[in-house]
Task: structure prediction
Amino acid sequence: MNTLIGLVIISIGSMGQSSSYVPINKIKDWSWENFWLVQGVFAWLVFPLLGAFLANSFSELINIYTSNSSAALQSIGYGVLWGIGGLTFGLSMRYLGIALGQSVSLGTCAAFGTLIPAILAGDDLFSPKGLILLLAVAVTLVGIAVVGYAGSLRSQQMSEEDRKKAIKDFALKKGLLIALLAGVMSACFNLGLTAGIPIKEFSIAAGASELFAQNPVTLLVTMGGFLTNFVYCVYMNRKNKTSGEIFRSSRPVLVNNLLFCALAGLLWYSQFFGLGMGQSFFEPESVMMAFSWSILMALNVIFSNVWGVILKEWSGAGKRAISFLVIGMMILIFSLVIPNLF
Result:
């Protein structure tokens, strides 16, 4: 029962993340680098900080971080690397298209984000527990690949003009290298959470509920990611001469954009807020706990495509593409229960 509750909580968070790009479409008159940075302030600083306060007070957080400075710096460092993954994720879709780019990036992120922490923890991947974990990850990768194939079938139904717009800079070798880099770097988020386990334990010792004890660690990782994105967005501001764009906005546009950036940031953060809460219902050394990162990635793929269906992005894709989409999503759903079948 606890496992089911954990899965439901992670699912709700994932559904929020997959919905975070909807309010972004409501942002007006701002260049990419400005709305991306503003929503990042909410997603990577404001809401993670509020989440950390649910676990511990400000003075307690300072004491926790200073008492575990090495773990804190590692979490921030992995966050910086994760920020690189977020930026290169967009490039992977530019060179490979959404279907192939997402499949390679998310598949790599799911695999590396799950297996590397297990290896670093000294787990034997050829033990019964390790083999179950490998099987679950493999099934997740198959599901993501099938969904990606469905996306490629959908693109085949597009007109030549639309296809060129979608993948006008198609470059297979370059795209694959960037997608692999994006996946590995994005997996660093989970490495940051793993590095911050001493902080989580210290947070609980300081009185935090296990439901919220991971939030102080999440804050450190997102802070690192914010640093990477801040540097890049400032660079783009200077390159495109858009640094004063926000302050030149009319009051209605400014209020509108701030509200939708805040909503996007809240929805995005909900995936990791939900991940931390959901993990508290899993046994600490269980396969389910080790597999939880892949669970989040699988759910992100599922809910992202659910939104695609709702927004009619799959209209005219053809029965074959829809069939593979459904099969891929069923495989991903099946992967979520594999750890509980043995």
The mean pLDDT is 88. The chain has one domain: 2-340. The radius of gyration is 20 Å.
